[in-house]
Specification:
Layout (H helix, E strand, L loop, with lengths): L1 H56 L3 H13 L3 E5 L5 E2 L13 H5 L4 E5 L2 E10 L2 E10 L7 H41 L17 H50 L5 H29 L8 E4 H10 L2 H6 L3 E5 L6 E4 L1 H18 L3 E8 L5 E7 L33 H11 L3 E5 L11 E7 L15
Helix pairs in contact: 1-4, 4-5, 5-6, 6-10, 7-9, 9-10
Amino acid sequence: MRRRLLVAILGTVALSLVLAGAGTYLLLQRQANRSSESGLRSEAEGIVGLIGLARADQPGVIREQRIVRGLRLEGISLVSIGPLGRLRGQLPDGVTAADLETTSLLAGHTLSGRSGGLVWAAAPVVGTRGAVVAVLTRNAQRPHAPVGWFLLAGGVALAIGAGVAAWLSDSLTRPLREAEAATVRIAAGDLTSPVPEPRGAADHEVTSLIRSLNVMAAALDQSRGLERQFILSVSHDLRTPLTSIRGYADAIAEGVGQDPAEAARVIGTEARRLDRLVQDLLDLARLDSREFSFQPRTLDVTEVVVDTAEGFRPTAEAAHISLEVAEPAGALPATIDPDRLAQAVANLVENGLKYATSTLWVDVRADGAGGVAINVVDDGPGIDPADVPHVFERLYVTDRRPTRQVGGTGLGLAIVRELVAGMGGQVDLESPAPALADGRGARLVITLPPPTPTPAPTPTPHF
C-alpha cells in the first residue's frame, strides 16, 4: 500500500506539472497573437491616417498611384471598396475577400484576425465614393518554450514531491501496519498489547480503527477471563458431587460403609446435581443456537408461578427459610409458554433460596401497563453494585458466596434472561431490595407484556 500511495502521489505531481506547463504555453501563445493583432491594427490605422493627409495635399490620380507604389514597396496592400461594397485590388497572400467584412470597413471600423499562420489587420479611409483599405500581414510568432527551465523546475518539484510523498505515505500507513501487527498478535492470543493511537488525530479514521481494535482486544481479554472463571466455577461444581459419588461408591464397594441406604441417597442427590448442571449447559447451548422451542399461549400467569414456587417449599423448610407466596385476587393473563416460564421462575426461586437469611417472598401483580410483574425478593446480604449490571450475562461469576447450597449450577440467571426474552419480556435486578428498610436483599423482577389479542374468527356466510 505504501508503494502504491507513493507512485500515485508522484504521478499526480507529474501530471499536474505537465498540465500546468501546457496551459502556460497556450496562454502565452494566445497573448502573443493578441499582441500581434493589436500592433498591426495600430500600424494599419497609422497608415490610413497618412493616406488621408496625402490625399489632402496632393489630389489626383498621380497621388493615388504614388501612394500605392510606395506602400507596396513596404509590403502593404491597398484595396478599395465601392459604395456598393465591391472589393477591388490585390489582397496579400493568406488573406481572402471572405475575411474582410466590407460593411464594417465602409462604416470606418478597423478589422483584424488570423488566417492560417498569419496575423492580419485592415484599416479603412472612408470617402464619398467608398473606402480605401490598408491591409497588413505578419507571420504569427510562436512563443519560445523554456524547455530547459521547465525540466529543471519539474525535476525540483518532483524531488520535493517524492520527499513529501514518502513522508506522507509512511505517516499514513504506519498506524495501519501497527494495526495489522496487532491483529496478528490478537490472533496468536496476545490481548495485552494495545496499539498506540496516532498523536494529533483524535477524529482521524485510522484513529477510530485503532480504538476499535483496542476495544475489541480488551473485550476479548475480558471474555477470556470470564470464560476461565466460568470454567473454574463449573469445574468446581462438577468436582464436588463427583468426589462425593466416588467416595461413597468406593466405601460401598469395599464394604466399609456404615449405612448403604444413606450412601445411596447421597449418590442419588449428587447425581441429580450433575444432571442439573449438564442440563443447564445444554440449555445455554440451545438458547445460543436458537434451538430452544417456545409454544406460547394466553393463560393465567398466577397459576404457573404459585405452583412452581410451592414446589420449593420442602427445600425452604429444610433450609429454615420462610417461603411467602402471595396470590393476587384476580387472574393475570399473558401470552407465555408455561413450561418455560415455570423454568425461569424456578431458577429465580432457587437463586433466592441460596442467599436468603430468613425469608423469601414471591408475588405476582399487574405492572400498570397491562402486563404482569413476577417478583422474587430475598433478605440476603445483597449484591455488590459492580456486579448488578452483569449478573444475567453468560459466563459471569460474582465473588458473592451463597449462604447455603440448595442445588443449581450458577447458570440459572443467564438462562432466565434468555427464556424471558424468548417470550417477549425482560428480567431486572434491584439490590438492595426496595421493600427492605435495612438496605439488604435483592429483588428480581420478570416483566411480561400484555397478552397478544386473538384475532376474531371470520364468520361463515349462510346461503
